[in-house]
Amino acid sequence: MANIVIVGAQWGDEAKGKIVDFLAQDAAMVVRYGGGNNAGHTVTVGSEEYKFHLIPAGILNPNILCVISDGVVVDPGVLVKELSGLKSRGVDFKNLKISASAHVILPYHCLQDDFQESRRGDSAIGTTGRGIGPAYSDKATRIGIRMGEFVDPARFEARLNTVLAEKNALFTKVYGAEPLDAGKILAEYSRYAAELKPYVQDIAGLVFEAAKTPSGVIFEGAQGTLLDLDLGTYPYVTSSHPIAGGACIGTGVGPTMIDAVIGVAKSYTTRVGKGVFPTELDNETGSYIREKGHEYGTTTGRPRRCGWLDIVVLRYSARVNGLSCLSLGHLDVLSGLDSVQIGVGYSTKSGETLDQLPSDLPFRTDIEPIYETLPGWSEDLSAIRSFENLPLNACNYVKRVEELAGIPIGTLSVGPAREQTILFNDVLERTIRKRLS
Ligand code: GDP
Ligand code: IMO
Ligand code: MG
Q1: Going by CATH, does the domain composed of 4-83+203-436 fall within 3.90.170.10?
Q2: Which of 304, 361, 405, 420 could make an SS bond with 314 (beta carbons 3.0 to 4.6 A apart)?
Q3: Structure confidence by residue, pLDDT tens digits, 371-381
Q4: Catalytically annotated residue among 41, 109, 241, 330
Q5: Domain 103-199: which topology?
C-alpha cells in the first residue's frame, strides 16, 4: 500500500538520502529513478557517514532490493569505485540490480560536458562536469549505449567504434582537440563491464512485483524539482526529470501504482551552480547558514549558495509533484539567528505581486522577494526528539511554513542522523497510509 516517491522540492541536496534510508527500513525495494553521479546522497548511521552517487540510499538495509533503473545514467567507473568503497566498509550489496536499459556515461560525455561549459563562457550552467547532459542528449538522439549492450563485449566494441567516430569528429573539428582512442577506452571499460555484468538485468517486472507487495517501493529521486529539464529553471537545470512523474518514466511503473509523494525541503534554500535564486543571501547570514549547515557540495565540494526559504518554490513543487506531505529538514541550522525570514511572494518593478512561480523566472530581472519576518531562536535543536520540546519560536516557524506552503509536514529533521527525525504520525498515516515506528 505504500509506494512512495521521495522528491527534492527545491534545487537539490535537500537530504533525500536521509529520508530514503529512514523509510527503507520498512520497504521491499528502493529504486533510483533518474540522474547519475551528479547526485550525492548522504546517509548517516551512528558515527558512519556514507555518500552515495549512484547506489540507492537503501543499500544499508541488507534485506531489500536496491535498483538502479532505466532512467539513470551510469558511469561504470564511478559505480565500480562506489561498490568497492562499500565492500571495504563491510556493506553487503548482493541485492543490487542495474537496469539493462540504463544508459552508460563514457569518457567522451565528460569531455563534451567540459567543452560545452567552456564555450558557454559567462552563461555556463555550472554543471557537475560528470557528462550528464551529453549522456542524456545521446539517449534522446538515439546514439546512447545501454547497460545491456555495455556488458556484452562484442556489442560494446561495435557500438563504441561507431559512436566514437562521431564524437571524435566533433572533438577534432569543432573543439580543435585530440581524438579519443577507442582501444584505451575498451581496455579500461571492459574491466568495469565484467565487474558489473552480474548485476545487470531487465528490471521493469521486478519493480512492478515489489510495488504490489505490502511493503512497497521507495522511489528515490535525485536532484530537485527546480532542476527538472521541463519544469525547472531552464536552462539552468539538469538534463533529466527529477520531478515525481520522472519516477514512472524512469522505472516503468504506472502512475496509478504510486501511493504518495514526499517532498524533501530544507528550512532554508540552497543551490549549487548558476541560475536564478530570488531569496539568495549574498551576505553574512548566507555565510552563517553555509558554515553551520556545512553547505558544500557532496559531489563536487563547491560552496552551495544559501538563502531564505522560498514558499513560492514550495507551492510550485507541491503542484507539479502532487506532494502528499513535506519532509522539512535542517531546522537546527537556523538556530542562533535573531530573526528568520520566509519568502512569501515576489514583487515586480511594475507593482505586481506574484504568489506563483512565473515560467520566465530565470530571465526576470524585475523581481524582488517579499518577506515575512519571524522571531528566531538560540537553542541547539539537535538533541530534541519531539515537536512539543522545540523552542516556541521554532514551532511557530514550522507551523507558518506549513500554513504558507499549504502542504502538511510529515517529518521534521534536526540533524543528519536517523534518530534526529521528528515524525508527525497523524500526517504520515493520512498521507502515506502507513505507520512508521
Ligand atoms: P541529498 O542530495 O538530497 O540526499 O542531500 P545531500 O546529502 O547532498 O545534502 C544534505 C546534507 O545535509 C548532508 O550532509 C546530510 O548529512 C545533512 N543533513 C540531513 N538532514 C539534516 C538536518 O536536519 N540538519 C543538518 N544540520 N544536516 C542535515
Ligand atoms: P542531488 O541528488 C544539487 C545541478 C548542478 C548544475 C545543474 C546541472 O545530490 O540533490 P548537471 O551536472 O546535472 O548537468 O548540472 O544541476 N545539480 C545538482 N545540484 N544537487 C544535485 O543532486 C545536483 N545534480 C545536479 O550543480 O547547477
Ligand atoms: Mg546531494
Answers
A1: yes
A2: 405
A3: 999 999 999 99
A4: 41
A5: Adenylosuccinate Synthetase, subunit A; domain 2 (1.10.300)
| Ligand 1 pocket check for 414: Cβ under 6 Å | yes
Distance 239 CA to ligand 2 centre (A): 9
CA distance 243 to 228: 6
DSSP state of 121: G
287-299 pLDDT, tens digit each: 999 999 999 998 8
Catalytic site residue 103? no
Distance CA 382, CA 373 (A): 23
Is residue 355 among the annotated active site residues? no
Q: E strand or H helix at 422, and its extent?
A: strand 421-423
Q: Is the pLDDT at 173 greater than 80, yes or no? A: yes
Would you list the domain boundaries of the chain? 4-83+203-436, 103-199
What atom in ligand 2 is closest to the CA of residue 272? Answer: 26
C-alpha 10 – ligand 3 centre gap (Å)? 12
Predicted local distance difference test score (pLDDT) of residue 437: 40
- Reported as a single tens digit per residue, the pLDDT across 222-231 is 999 999 999 9
Atom from ligand 1 closest to the CA of residue 420:
23
Q: Which cell numbers in the block locate residue 426?
A: 497523524
247: which residues sit within 8 A by CB, 6+ positions away?
Answer: 5, 7, 33, 34, 219, 221, 253, 258
